[in-house]
Design a protein that fits this description.
The structure is a single chain. Helices cover 22% and strands 31% of the residues. It is built from five helices and twelve strands. The strands form three sheets. It has a four-stranded parallel beta sheet. The chain has a four-stranded mixed beta sheet with strand order 6-5-7-10, with helices on one face. The protein is globular. The two termini are 25 Å apart.
Length: 183
């Protein structure tokens, strides 16, 4: 069972759970990987990592009865939430990846294919600089280079007021967002 000061990494069958847990442990966080609703309710914060396809991720969240509890904890209870990679994309209302699919709807956004022209190719794979728009709080402790590793073909298309950083890959691509307790 998770304690009040712990972060829960949501295990919904997709994602780089161990890598995220190791990173949070390195930062001094108490971390539990779980799909137990009681753990999500009693946690201090929720992390939703992800590697894979939008439709499969939403299907898994729905089948495990996690989508509704995430909405309750994040939207109603205002629990701090971090979505990483596909986990960030799932915050959107919808995605066009492999057809139309509904997302968690935490922010007014949609997931769209990155518009690239030759010589650029998809997926966008590799290190890329980000342009930080809002440093507080995600990037406050970031020192030095702003290089991050990307592996994606789709991006979160949302209102500019939510965007805390961009990267350039043929177009300005949302790299991070922030809305109240949602990151």
């Amino acid at each position: 069972m998770v304690g009040k000061g712990d972060f829960v990494i949501v295990d919904y069958g997709l994602g780089n759970l161990r890598s995220v847990a190791n990173a949070l442990n390195y930062l001094g966080c108490n971390v539990l990987i779980s799909r137990d609703i009681r753990d999500l309710v009693s946690s201090a914060a929720i992390v939703l990592p992800g590697v894979g396809a939008f439709e499969e991720a939403m299907n898994n969240l729905d089948e495990l009865k996690l989508a509704d509890i995430l909405r309750q904890q994040v939207i109603e209870e205002k629990k701090p939430f971090l979505g990483i990679c596909l986990g960030m994309q799932l915050l959107a209302e919808s995605s066009e990846e492999n057809g139309y699919h509904q997302g968690l709807g935490f922010i007014r956004a949609s997931v769209r294919k990155i518009p690239v022209e030759k010589p650029l190719r998809l997926p966008h794979i590799g290190w890329n600089d980000i342009e930080i728009i809002n440093r507080d709080p995600l990037f406050l402790r970031l020192e030095g280079d702003t290089n991050f590793y990307f592996v994606h073909s789709y991006f979160l298309d949302c209102d500019a007021s939510y965007i805390s950083s961009y990267c350039q890959y043929g177009a300005r691509v949302t790299a991070s967002i922030q809305k109240d307790n949602i990151f």
